[in-house]
Every structure is written in C-alpha cells, then in structure tokens.
Design brief:
two-stranded antiparallel sheet, about 190 residues, 1 helix, alpha+beta
Length: about 190
C-alpha cells in the first residue's frame, strides 16, 4: 500500500504489531514442528540401535563362550579341575554357571612388576546375576582369573557383558546319541 509522505518528505516505513505477531506465530509453529520431528527421529534412532545391539550382542557373547571353551586346558590338569557346570535359576530363569581353566589369552591385563601383562592361561567362568533395573532380564558376567591356581573355579575379576539376558542354559551329556539325556550339574569326581 502506498504511504503518504510525512511532513519531512520521507514515507513512513515499518510493520504493525499484528503483522509482527502473525510472523512470530508462524515461526513458532515451524519451530515446534521441527522440534517434534527431531524428537521422533531421535526416538526411532534409539529404538533401532537397541534392537540392533540386542541382535548383535547374543551372537558376540556366544562366540566369546565358544572361543573360551575351545581353549579348555586339559594338559597336566587333574580331571576334577577341568570343568564345572552348575544348574542355577534366578527369578525363575535358567542362569547356569560355567567354570573352567583355559589356554585362551587373558582379556584383562594384570600389573606385574610395574608393567601390564596378559596370561597365556587363565581361569574363566560365566555367571548370571539379577538385573537391578528390570526383573524380566538377567545380567551376564565373564569371570577371569590371571593364571591358574589350586582353586580354578573361584576368585578372579568379573567383567559385565550384557544386561538383557533371558536365560543361559548349559547342557552336559554323559553319552552320545539322539536318546542321550542331559544331566543338571557336572564336575568330575574321583571314582564317580
């Protein structure tokens, strides 16, 4: 719209309060829409990450257990110190315990004479504990004890692996074949 020149000869320029309020309202609406879009994108990203982590964590933990079991130390060991499997349940879910001596390199370095070293043999175990934040899941830990001592199923340092485990069931068979029945617990006993 054309504006009348003022007494000094220059036209009056500017926005009315209503025009400023309309612009602020439009900008505010756009900012709200962008914020909601970013929030829903963040939630979707977190959901996808959690699903992906859960799907990748299980196989990775099982690979670690398999690697440790494949390195089971049997040379120059008493039979009763080779492997121990305990049938356990936590919150009604299978939470078996597994302990053995292994030739796998230790994952946790230990300070010996002012330097960090790793052992070529160590005691390894897997334990499940209650999840303090969610009763529907358990937490799994890997136990590692530097070297091997007279008590291969005790001591060591526990490393947290994952907090969303439904069950950990270890089956031991004393015979081969399709009809073989698993036993609940196993540890070699002399004469048994």
């Amino acid at each position: 719209r054309a504006q009348e020149p003022r007494a000094g000869g220059s036209p009056r320029a500017g926005f009315s309060l209503v025009e400023v309020m309309v612009v602020l309202l439009i900008v505010g609406g756009l900012m709200l829409a962008i914020t909601q879009l970013l929030e829903s994108t963040r939630i979707s990203r977190d959901t996808i990450h959690n699903i992906q982590e859960t799907q990748l964590a299980g196989p990775a933990i099982m690979d670690l257990v398999e690697r440790d079991l494949r390195s089971l130390l049997v040379y120059d060991r008493r039979a009763e110190d080779l492997l121990q499997v305990q049938d356990r349940a936590v919150y009604g879910m299978d939470a078996d315990a597994l302990d053995f001596a292994a030739t796998t390199n230790s994952l946790l370095p230990v300070q010996v004479e002012q330097r960090l070293v790793r052992s070529d043999v160590c005691e390894v175990g897997y334990r499940l504990r209650p999840n303090p934040t969610d009763d529907d899941f358990l937490e799994i830990y890997r136990r590692e004890d530097f070297g091997i001592d007279d008590e291969p199923f005790d001591g060591g340092t526990y490393t947290f692996l994952h907090d969303r485990v439904k069950r950990f069931s270890v089956q031991v068979f004393t015979a081969d074949g399709i009809d073989a029945e698993p036993i609940d617990e196993w540890r070699y006993e002399e004469g048994g």
